[in-house]
Design the sequence.
């Protein structure tokens, strides 16, 4: 995490009974907030393979869940208006610390205006954050029509036409059609 944000993050976590876990990479999520019981600490987990800026945004997202839960005492409407208000406020505070490079500010400001349930659902922010990854990965949306590709789950596809945010892709073994998000990471790309 960028050094400039450490004191701020500690101040957010200080009043709460919380366990922070840095986890191995997970395919399905970047972070998580859980509450087990009244006497046990809440748990925030964040994938440890994220670049420092993605890590900080994900951690801020999960801390917003903690603060929302502390106020409302429920996990219902986890990404509702109260969470959005808290998350936008926290993200604004982080930006003010100078923790993010100025090149990220336009995407962050746009993200703050209408936060998504997952930062990876915000294509503008995701693209801006990717430039700081150690190993840039190919995305489905970057492939030409007809390209063959492999997803991390081992399924091989041929890229088809765009349908809003997803591409209609044919799985090569079964010949079944799937809608695959344009932001999906692809490996073993073969051009036809």
Sequence:
């Amino acid at each position: 995490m960028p050094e400039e944000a450490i004191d701020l993050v500690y101040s957010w976590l200080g009043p709460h009974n919380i366990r922070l876990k840095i986890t191995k990479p997970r395919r399905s999520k970047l972070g998580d907030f859980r509450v087990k019981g009244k006497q046990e600490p809440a748990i925030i987990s964040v994938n440890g393979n994220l670049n420092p800026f993605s890590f900080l945004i994900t951690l801020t997202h999960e801390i917003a869940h903690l603060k929302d839960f502390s106020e409302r005492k429920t996990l219902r409407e986890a990404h509702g208006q109260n969470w959005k208000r808290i998350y936008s406020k926290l993200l604004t505070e982080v930006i003010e610390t100078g923790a993010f490079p100025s090149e990220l500010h336009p995407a962050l400001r746009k993200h703050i205006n209408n936060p998504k349930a997952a930062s990876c659902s915000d294509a503008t922010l995701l693209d801006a954050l990717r430039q700081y990854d150690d190993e840039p990965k190919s995305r489905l949306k970057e492939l030409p029509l007809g390209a063959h590709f492999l997803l991390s789950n081992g399924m091989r596809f041929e890229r088809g036409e765009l349908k809003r945010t997803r591409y209609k892709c044919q799985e090569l073994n079964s010949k079944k059609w799937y809608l695959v998000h344009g932001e999906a990471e692809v490996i073993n790309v073969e051009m036809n």
